[in-house]
Amino acid sequence: MDKIGVQKFQFYSNSSTITYKTFDLAWVIDFIIQLRDKVKVLEPPFLVEDVKNTIKKISKLYES
H or E segment at 35? Predict the structure, then answer.
């Protein structure tokens, strides 16, 4: 986790929570997208929306 700068990692029986501080929001969104359905952004709300919007843009590339 040090490789990506994780501030806090909590492990639960079926899930984990990662707290991460960064100034590079685009990198974080790309990282989340790479993890596909293995992660869910819970907060902050603006990051949840940014991830949703990025996924919508990707989806539109495959509409026909």
Answer: none
